[in-house]
Every structure is written in structure tokens, then in C-alpha cells.
Amino acid sequence: MEKKQKGLRLHHDEAFKRSAVELLVVSGKPIRQVADELGVAHWTLREWKKRYGAAPTPRTVTELENENRRLRQELLRAQNQRDILKKTLGILSNPNDSALNG
To answer: Which of 10, 13, 56, 59 could form an SS bridge with 63, CB 3.0 to 4.6 Å?
Structure first.
């Protein structure tokens, strides 16, 4: 890692800070390791975690039901796409039934 000149301060936007905190939480890696990977000081990342890592506010039952419904629809769509790809792969990989063999 390249050393920075004394007095030079980098300013990161809020999106970067939130992404850094999300990476820290999801990765399960030590804070120093994630900070090194991102090129920030570990104490800076710790401060960002305090500021942006707060637990989300509790949601209502209706919001959770709506999210559940949306996720089920998304899952069904993904399963259908997977099944289509499997069928296509089966057709393309079977040389006996292929129209390309004449």
C-alpha cells in the first residue's frame, strides 16, 4: 500500500462508507483486515460502523408480508429461468435428437 503524504485527508462519500460497513459485517473478517483491504484506517472503519451499522428499525407485519410475497415471486421467477436453462442445455447436449445432425 502506498503511503500518503502527511496532512492529506481522503474524503469518502456516504455510499462508500455504508458499503464498507456492509462488507465488514457480511465478510466476518477482522476489522483491521477489512480496513487494510479498503485502504482506510481501522479506527475510521470502526467509527463508520458505529454511525452506519446500526440495526434497521423494526418493520411492521404488513411490510414483512409484502417483502415475503415479493421474495417468493422472485424465487419462482429464478426457478423458472433455471428450469428453462436446464432444458436448453439438455437439448443442446443431446446429439441424437439435434436438428443439426440432419
So the answer is: 59
Full-model pTM? 0.47
Convert 36-82 into a string of H (helix), E (strand) and C (coil): HHHCCCHHHHHHHHHHHCCCCCCCCHHHHHHHHHHHHHHHHHHHHHH
C-alpha cell at 34: 477489512
* Cβ proximity of 101 and 95 under 8 Å: yes
The answer to whether the beta carbons of residues 38 and 45 sit under 8 Å apart is yes
CB atoms within 10 A of CB 89: 10
pLDDT tens digits, residue range 24-54?
888 889 999 999 999 999 999 999 999 988 6
13 in helix, strand or coil? coil
Burial class (CB in 10 A: 0-12, 13-18, 19+), 24: buried
What does DSSP assign to residue 30?
A: -
Q: How confident is the model at residue 3 (pLDDT cuts 50, 70, 90)?
A: very low
